[in-house]
Amino acid sequence: MTTNTAPAIEIVHLTVATGHEDAFLAERDGMIAAVREVHPGLLHAQLVDLGDGQWIDLVRWRTIDEAHAAAADFPNIPQAGAWAAHIAEVTSMPHGHIAHESR
Question: What separation in angstroms does the CA of 65 have from each of 25, 33, 38, 56, 99?
């Protein structure tokens, strides 16, 4: 059984606009820092290049409630909005509780 206090993962499947890959990558650290400043529940983020402009952004959150709050607030954070301008399309963005983890 999971609760809203369990760690969560946000999985964003997106397409980067053609010709924006360099800026998308260059601005990412600043965007993550700006989001984390407002939403400290952002614990870890990994960006996976699938090729052909397709990417998966894996973001670990302290809780699913913090993930949802940050997703709703994302457009209001200037660095996040600027970074998102490099995205052509977000195909999906599910959130889920971490049920098991091995390290």
Answer: 27, 19, 14, 21, 16
